[in-house]
């Protein structure tokens, strides 16, 4: 037995309008080849987060997070490197383990809130 917490605006979507919107989108994308259809997704990961309910009281939620950004074309032939956005310019584990950010299999960026901002 568990609890389900809903997030976001998924309940605000008018389900009856979806088929018409999909048809409209298909018409707009028709002039382009599938290699030029890209999908981009942003995802936030709040790690070290405590349970929402417990017997302990007090304290604030730990909001340490990273954001990831993924980009790939429809056919899967053009996969871009994943972007990871964190808080620190040079995170402590990078220093402790002598990790060169240029050699990472991802693109690492940073800003104060670890968000994907327009400047990036």
Description:
There is one protein chain. By secondary structure, this protein is an alpha+beta fold. The chain has a domain at 37-49 and 64-119. 14% of the residues lie in helices and 22% in strands. The protein contains two helices and four strands; from the N terminus they run αβββαβ. It has helices at 18-29, 92-96, and strands spanning 38-46, 65-73, 83-86, 107-110. It has a four-stranded mixed sheet with strand order 1-2-3-4, with no helix packed on it. The radius of gyration is 20 Å and the shape is flat.
Span of the ends, CA to CA = 42 Å
On the 0 to 100 scale, the average pLDDT is 82
**Helix share bin:** 10-25%
Strand content: 15-25%
Task: Characterize the largest beta sheet: strand count, sense, and whether it forms a barrel.
Answer: 4 strands, mixed
Radius of gyration: 20 Å
Secondary-structure-derived class: alpha+beta
Please give the order of strands in the largest beta sheet.
Answer: 1-2-3-4
Helix and strand succession?
HEEEHE
Break the fold down into its secondary structure elements and pairings:
Layout: H1 18-29, E1 38-46, E2 65-73, E3 83-86, H2 92-96, E4 107-110
Parallel strand pairs: 3-4
Antiparallel strand pairs: 1-2, 2-3
């Amino acid at each position: 037995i568990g609890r389900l917490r809903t997030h976001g605006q998924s309940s605000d979507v008018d389900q009856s309008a979806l088929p018409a919107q999909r048809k409209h989108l298909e018409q707009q994308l028709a002039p382009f080849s599938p290699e030029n259809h890209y999908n981009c997704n942003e995802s936030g990961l709040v790690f070290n987060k405590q349970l929402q309910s417990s017997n302990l009281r007090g304290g604030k939620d730990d909001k340490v997070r990273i954001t990831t950004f993924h980009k790939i074309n429809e056919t899967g032939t053009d996969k871009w490197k994943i972007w990871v956005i964190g808080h620190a310019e040079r995170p402590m584990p990078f220093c402790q383990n002598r990790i060169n950010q240029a050699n990472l299999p991802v693109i690492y960026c940073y800003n104060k809130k670890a968000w994907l901002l327009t400047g990036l």
